[in-house]
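In the laboratory, one determines a bound structure by crystallizing the protein with its ligand and collecting diffraction data. In a computational setting the workflow is compressed into a single prediction: the sequence and the ligand go in, and a structural description comes out. We illustrate the idea with NDP.
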Amino acid sequence: MPQIIDGKAISTAIKDELKKEVAENNIKATLAVIQVGNDPASTVYVGNKKKACEYIGIGSRSYELPEETTEAELLKLIDDLNRDDGINGILVQLPVPDHIDEHKIIERISPQKDVDGFSPESVGNLCIGREGFVSCTPAGIIELLKRSGISIEGRECVVIGRSNIVGKPMALLLLANNGTVTVCHSRTVNLKEICKRADILIAAVGRPRMINRDYVKEGAVVIDVGIHRMDNGKLCGDVDYDDVSDIVSAITPVPGGVGPMTIAMLMYNCVKAARQVK
Ligand code: NDP
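The predicted complex, in structure-token form:
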């Protein structure tokens, strides 16, 4: 039986630690959450983020803007929030409507309030090993590994996916933790062979159950970032869990693996933002 990495339990432990820190140190923090339009998935994510703030004892301020909001209006709101001393973190729920340039929006958020860790300054700090906000999903994966007693140092790590929010920061974090890192993508030749070398395989490919036992070395640790809703309403990941579970040493389930960690690390970043102000 493989070790099932319990993201739900680990994320709850992190939120409880933060809750304690906030209460004991009387930390006052408020997260501004901006949603443009009413995409149902985004509404669920935003709701979960607000609930998590409440759980750990920090405030949240919601900005639910209509779909027709212009880029200039959104930038003006971000400018106002950047100047607002009562706000420690600013989060714009992505995706934004097509008429708004996502990059411009991300770049406008003050690096001190960039709790998603998406801005060029945050990514640059990660790249050169400086303190800063780290993208929540990859940061959560590092916590999952550490808190499950899985060492990264010296191990062969393969990341499938090179997106700005998952694959690239994931690779940088594994490198910072002394892993030997390979990043794969849609143009990678010999994907199966490369994945089969991995002691730690991170699947952030966005394709339901693509990663089966042909990609996995016996005894590997497999982290599944993917989330897909199937026709029967159930969730599945990028990994074919049933196919690989008898050969891996440890694996994250979907749901209950990486998913809950993203919000826990967002809360971590919010508390960190508030600590910087103190
Ligand atoms: P993207 O679609 O932005 O990136 C997918 C990456 O996979 C790209 O780099 C792409 O390569 C690569 N890829 C696609 N097809 C193949 C293939 N056949 N072989 C090799 N590589 C391939 O996705 P994200 O990084 O945003 O997300 C990845 C997954 O993680 C999704 O399922 C998403 O829903 C999930 N996710 C989960 C989160 C959580 O909280 N658990 C948070 C964020 C994402 P190329 O660059 O060449 O196009």
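Residues 137, 160-163, 165-167, 184-188, 191, 204-207, 225-227, 238, 258-259, 262 surround NDP (CB under 6 Å). Keep in mind that any predicted model is a hypothesis to be tested, not a measurement.
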